[in-house]
Structure formats: structure tokens, C-alpha cells
């Protein structure tokens, strides 16, 4: 099997369009068709349902998606590690959900870059399920998530407790803030459950956002209210551009570092976590 076949399969599954996949991969559409056909012949099954303007994965294609991701990621990592072997640098892959890159990981990866020139750092953003899958198949060294799974293969370590507070562009109480341009930010499953318990009669928010940084920018430019990390909004509270809603309770979220217990870099990972700034 050719690695390009898997890359092409992933691109077609992402774009659901052979022509767009060809454009993105800088090859002809006939080359894309040939690669997919070759992969299907080798597997002995169809991977796509081909209808005009409607390309869908077959059940076999859905199953293949995960394996193709693992194969292409492992190949890219192998190329990186082999290429770095002569330089003496050690590849180190860091993954996190978007919200934790904003709050924790940007600062940490900068610290690692300054203090550990023996490491070749690679950062990725994915949702929690993809990150944990990457940790389990050893194509990522460490991941940072809110909702850590229970798995005997994984080592899980709490690294930060985030204090989420309700803030608004205008001083008000919680009922007023929830009723006026409230943004529901997705800080993970436990947060959403606690939020629903705390505000059972809340009107349905007009805006849901999965990233705290985007919600903050929206508040500053358009007004409204949202639960955001206190460390993220403190400068704007000090300036008076945002106001804390004092009768809305703070909600704590724990951020976890997750790595594969069988990772050969386990001791290094623990050392680097020990050096992580306190939050």
C-alpha cells in the first residue's frame, strides 16, 4: 500500500469532493480516483458511495477512517524522528483542546522551546476523543483535556484548576446577563451539566461557542455575557471593559495531562510537567 493512497482517502473523506481533494493535494482528479480505486481493490471493498455532488463514506469507509489517520500520523512521525536522529533532537508531540491552548499551552510550549533545545516540539489541536486516540496509539506524547477518560493504559495528572466566572460588558445581575446576549461557552461536559443545574430556567442562548478566546473577542466587540476563565478576563475587569456578575457562582474546571503509561518518554514527560508553571 502507498502512503499517498491513505492521504488521498483522508482528503476525500474530509472534502467529500474528488475535484477539491485533487486541488488541495496538487494532483489531477484522475490521480485521486486512481488512488482511491487502488485502495479499494487492495481492501476488497468500496470506501465511498459515489453519487453526483454527494460523496459519502460507506460503513467500511467509516471504519477505515481511524486506521488511515493512525497510518498517516505514524508515517509522518517516523519521517520526523528519522530526520531528527542525526541532529540529536528528540521529537515531542503536544496536543490539546483549543481552550487549553489559549489558557495553558501557549505559555508552556514557549517555555519548553526556550529551556529545552534538545526537543523538537510539535503542537496539535483536536477534540478530546482524537487526542486520547492519538495517545493510545503512541502518535502523540502528551495531551491536555478537561474530561479525562479512565483507562489502565493512561497516566492522568491534574495540572491546573481553572476558575470560570460569569462576566458581562455591562454591570448587571445573573438573570439580566442570561437574558441579554448570553454566550454559552463549551468548557467541557462537566461544565455544561453544572451550568444546566445552576440555571435551569435560562432562556436558550442565541450563541454557542466552543472556544473561550472567541467568546472573549465577541464580548469586547459586541457586548453580552459569558462564563470565561478568570485569568483570561482579569485585565479587562481591571480596565472596566468587562464586569463580573457577582451573584453568578464561579465554576471550577480541572485540566488534565494524559499520556500513555508505556511511552518510552514517560520520565521526561513527568519532568516537563513538574516544570510547568502553576495555574
UniProtKB/TrEMBL annotation:
Keywords: DNA-binding, Transcription, Transcription regulation. Residues 1-58 form the HTH lysR-type domain. Coiled coil: none annotated. The keyword Nucleotidyltransferase does not apply. GO terms for molecular function: DNA-binding transcription factor activity; transcription cis-regulatory region binding. It comes from the Bacteria. InterPro entries: LysR_HTH_N, LysR_subst-bd, WH-like_DNA-bd_sf, WH_DNA-bd_sf. PANTHER family: HTH-TYPE TRANSCRIPTIONAL REGULATOR (PTHR30126), TRANSCRIPTIONAL REGULATOR-RELATED (PTHR30126:SF21). Belongs to the LysR transcriptional regulatory family. This is LysR family transcriptional regulator.
